[in-house]
Amino acid sequence: MTNNEWAEYPGQMIPKLEAEQVLEHGASMRQLMIDLFPLCRSITGNGLRSTLEILQSLIPLQIHEVPSGTSVLDWVIPQEWNVNDAYVRNSQGEKIIDFKKSNLHLLNYSVPARGFFSLSELKEHLYSLPESPAWIPYRTSYYTRNWGFCLSDDQLRSLPEDCYEVVVDTRLEDGHLSYGEYYLAGQSRDEVLISTHICHPSMANDNLSSLVISASLARALTGMKLRYSYRFLFLPGTIGSITWLSRNQKQIEWIRHGLVLACLGDAGSFTYKKSRRGDAAIDRIAASQLEHLPEAGKSVNFSPYGYDERQYCSPGFNLPLGCLMRTPHGEFPEYHTSADNLAFVTRENLQQSFALLYGVLRAIELNRNYLNLNPKGEPQLGRRGLFPQDGTQDQEEIGRMKMALLWLLNLSDGQHSLLDIAERSGLSMDKLFDAATLLVRNGLMRDLSCSAPSSLQFEHNTRESLC
Ligand code: ZN
Question: How far is the CA of 318 from the centre of ligand 1 (A)?
Answer without folding.
Answer: 23
